[in-house]
Amino acid sequence: MNARVLVVDDDPDLRESLACLLEGVGYTVAEAADGFAALGAALVLKPDVVLLDVMMPRENGYRVARKLREAQAVGLLPEAMRIVLVTARKLDHDPEREALFEQFAHPDMVVYKPFDVNSLLSAVAGMQAPVQAAAGTPPVG
Amino acid sequence: MTPPNPSDANDRAADILDLLPVPVAVRGAAGYAYRNAAHRGVAAEALKVDAGAADGSGAGADLEGLGIARVTDPDSGRVYLCSRTPLGSGPEVLEVLEDITGRQSDRDEIARHRDALAREAEALARANRELAVIDRAKAAFIALAAHEVRTPLTALANALALLRRAPEGRTEKSGERFLAMAERNVGRLAALADDLLAFTKLEMGHLGLAVAPVDVTALVAEAAAALAVDPDGRRVRVTGGTRLPALHGDPARLGPVVRGLLRHALDRAPEGHAVRVALSHRRRWSRPGEPGDPAEAPAAPGPPDGWLEVAVSDAAGTANTDGSEGDEALGLGLAVGRRIAALHGGALWARPGGSVVLRLPVLSLPDARLLPVQEAWRRLPRHGAAPALVVLRPEGDGEGTGDSGALRAALGEDPGFASVPEAGEVVGAVAGDAAVARVRAAAAGWSAAKGCPIRMGWSRADAAADFPAALARARAAMRTLEGIGETERGPDGGAGDGAEGVST
User: Fold this and answer.
1) Cβ pair B302, B353 in contact under 8 A
2) Is residue B136 part of a domain?
3) Alpha-carbon gap, residue B341 to B348, rounded angstroms
4) Could you give the CA distance from residue B62 to residue B147 in angstroms, rounded to a whole number?
5) Angstrom distance (rounded) from CA B366 to CA B248
6) Residues B249 and B189 in one domain
7) Same domain, B80 and B121
8) For residues B277 and B260, what is the distance between their CA atoms, to the nearest angstrom?
9) Cβ–Cβ of A114/B153 closer than 8 Å?
10) Chain-centre distance of CA B335, in angstroms?
11) pLDDT tens-digit profile of B183-206?
12) Which of A24, A93, A115 has the CB atom closest to B165's CB atom?
């Protein structure tokens, strides 16, 4: 079975383009336009990887990631599910705040927009290999 | 006063000191003194050393241990600064260094200067704190701009990557779709560049206002109509658009702000939901029992005719729940709107719970015309050259030369000046006497060329001066240009009001 990727972004162009790129290399892709929709979609689809935008209406990506982790902890989502925060919110002027948010959300990886498409696809592919790192591994990207 | 008999030592000292060409007195241990022949104006026997000399020790009179005494002649009331040199165990020589009568008032003057310096230091510290706040705001704004650019840039890069990759099974239709996506995001980037330019102009005070009557209900209706076609079924629902008071502002600036508000809410509304726009007239900034918006509240008492409010929220109340604040919550487009609202004397902010509010003062046309001047007045530095509010009133001669618009045009492009035709005035905010003089010279030139007399007045201000008060003072001080003296100064040396005149 192809790996399943859930793309969550409130920007329709970004969501669609990411989905097309992932589908183009063989992933099964689902899309969600906001945080609440992402939680529902994740519980139904049980994705292998969630690409999660941070700045979204209704529920931001940090909070969604936190809730996804909580769902993982009680067995509602696969333990192997990986979360990648995709954000334009690079808080260069406030790194402490950024670190705090990431500590709160426990992403497996943080990717900053604009990102290199090939690097992102490689990273997602790498996540399909047996993952040794636990949730909360220091982010890269 | 009857002096005691002098001691022999004092007699001897006096004999010697009489030979000296400098004014010298000898004070005995019992508190009296003699003068020498060169001593003029000092009643020697009556000399008294201030503050403690009466006990004969003289120690108390020594100013800070410097061997100097302040000596008073009670008959003449004069005060002398003297050096003191002990002669043996008792007498001492007091050499008059300087007549310091009146220095008490000098000390008062110094104390006043010291207080003024302390106030100035406090004002500078306050200005530094304000600058620090501005610096932080600028850093946050740059971060916001970078953030806003990254999303369309990423979408554009992805669209181009999709076009280049030519995935199997890609149809011409999908190619068109990705091209359209690329073009759309190029457009978004261009709009962001426009926003940045507008923001920069606003920050530099270079964006003027063309004030005219504004129908806010119509502005909202136009914006709603322009955004009505939403592929996801979102729509705009307007309430409260009747019986609103007339507003005056720049419709060309306010229109995009209203459109931006609606677009902002539509972007965040869930599919199929409506964006609600509530229009209302408020007599006061805050209503009883209603949570205020203290961070945005203007200074009391506010405009006499109250405020006109446009509150925009989506039906799910989700416009601002991502934890961001200020400009970050509004995005770059609405950050520009926030500045335009401020330029109109109002405010724009995201209210916790999901609505974005635009509130504008209900001003008469003449008052609205003064908004750019008020903004320039607010921006003038309160240090160095004193801010001045200038009022010029051309006296009409029946042939149109009294037109304040023509005089305004003659004064150049300065956005800190505005013509108020209803009052027949030109009002401007400038920094310092030299700027006032330049305005006066320009006005005098125009007056001579047109044969149109001009009345002029101005008021200077400190940090606390509010705009209406400064304007009232400037108007009260008006007189004809010819009647303004060339070298007169304000009553307090330049910090006062009026048409006292400046050197041209």
Assistant:
1) no
2) yes
3) 6
4) 70
5) 9
6) no
7) no
8) 13
9) yes
10) 21
11) 999 988 988 888 888 777 777 777
12) A24
B313: chain A residues, CB-CB within 8 Å: none
Tokens (6 digits) for B503: 């050197």
Q: Which pLDDT score is estimated for B84? A: 72
In the numeric block, the tokens 């899309």 are attached to: A31
Q: What angle do CA B129, B135, B136 make, to 5 degrees?
A: 95
Q: How far apart are CA A74 and CA B105, in angstroms?
A: 83
Prediction pTM value? 0.61
CB of B151 within 8 Å of a chain A CB? The answer is: yes
Question: Domain residues for A96?
Answer: 4-125
Q: Does B315 touch chain A (CB under 8 A)?
A: no
Judge if B145 and B226 occupy the same domain. Answer: no
B451 and B465, same domain (yes or no): yes
What pLDDT band is residue A72 in, cutting at 50, 70 and 90?
very high
Q: What is the CATH number of the domain that holds A102?
A: 3.40.50.2300
Question: Is A13 touching B (CB cutoff 8 A)?
Answer: yes
CB within 8 Å of chain A, chain B residues 366-405? none
Q: How confident is the model at residue B27 (pLDDT cuts 50, 70, 90)?
A: low
Q: Is A138 inside any structural domain? A: no
Q: How many domains is chain B built from?
A: 4
In total, chain B counts a number of residues equal to 504
Q: Which of B324, B189, B342 is nearest to B257 (CA)?
A: B342
State whether residue A126 sits within 8 Å of chain B by CB: no
The verdict on B392 and B344 lying in the same domain is no
B303 and B234 part of one domain = yes
Domain range enclosing B83: 8-101
> Which residue on chain B is closest to A92 by alpha carbon?
B143
Q: Is B3 contained in some domain? A: no
Over the stretch A100-120, which tens digit does the pLDDT of each residue have? Answer: 777 777 889 988 888 888 899
ipTM: 0.81
Cβ <8 Å between B158 and A33: no
Tell whether B237 is within 8 A of chain A (Cβ).
no
In this complex, is the C-beta atom of A91 within 8 Å of any C-beta atom belonging to chain B? yes
B277: which 2 tokens?
A: 């726009």
- How many angstroms separate the most distant Cα atoms in chain B? 128
Interchain proximity A57–B319, CB inside 8 Å: yes
* CATH classification at residue B386: 3.30.70
Whole-Å CA distances, B92 to B47, B62, B467: 13, 12, 64
User: Which residue among B171, B203, B235 closes a domain?
Assistant: B203
Contacts of B174 in chain A (CB under 8 A): 20
Select from B161, B181, B322 the Cβ nearest to the Cβ of A21.
Answer: B161
